[in-house]
Design brief:
- The protein is of the alpha/beta class.
- It has 2 domains: 186 residues, Bordetella uptake gene, domain 1 (D-Maltodextrin-Binding Protein, domain 2); 122 residues, Periplasmic binding protein-like II (D-Maltodextrin-Binding Protein, domain 2).
- The protein contains 13 helices and 10 strands.
- Helix 5 runs parallel beside helix 13.
Amino acid sequence: MNRLLLSIVLCAAAAQAAAQSFPSKPIRVIIPFVAGGSSDIVGRAIAAKFQDLLGQPGVVENRPGANGAIAAEFVAKADPDGHTILVGSIGVFSINAALFKDLRYHPVRDFAPITLAVTTPNVLITKPTLAAGSLKELVEAMKKNPGKLSYCSSGTGSSDHLTAELLKQASGTDAVHVPYKGGAACQTDIMGNQVDFSFQNLGAVTNYIKGNRMKALAVTAKARHAQLPEVPAVGEAGMPDLVVTSWQAAAAPAKTPREVVARLNEAMVKALRAPDVSARMNQIGFDVVASSPEEFAAFMKGEVERWTRVVAKGNIKPE
């Protein structure tokens, strides 16, 4: 047996042995944001099932800071044995790579994708007194009053900011961006008639819409959403390119053995599809995806490319 063939056989045997012994200790689930947010909710729901599904507990650690980059870099540099994983958002896995030139990790290069866990569309909301009653009418108002209407976001580079930027680019319009430190303040000022419109996660604003405290013009999905069946999808409004989801996903360090990634994927898919978890996700506006590693890899690559184009065209700079 020549050396190359022997090396291949030994590597395969080592990978198989690693998979068979995995996990050999608790699995650290690193969350790049504070407790209580979307990544935290999804990460904890998955981690709670690890003991039953893998025989080892999931231990959640919140490591917030730098738009999630601190936690992402930590996991990217962790031992690639499957015992340290990252559960994070569209920002961590795609937008950061488009927005920050000095980012010390790259989602496509430095991670082994495990699964796209959940998605949720954004909702185009407006202040109660805005005359526009549809996406088409809002675009017409923006064209008639260039740079006069305002939109708020949960921060520069957030998915809600870039969705509004995508609307401007697709419709050839302009509006004033008002960034906030989080979506709650933005939503409050929409309801207070201080800002004209915004794109916010469906689960965060559904009750306000149903309570007539803000108007909803469209959901950024391919089809209408069950929680807001009376609100048209952007495709119905003639803007299919505006289909945007906010999402949460899981990944391990890049060199994690495929067999270990496969075991993690199997456990996470079962966890996400468990009746109690899927019911909880649907309750807060998330649609469970629970994809394969290959599906998430292709999706993440496409998202990085999409938002890189939007950021470049809009000349968007981080705050």
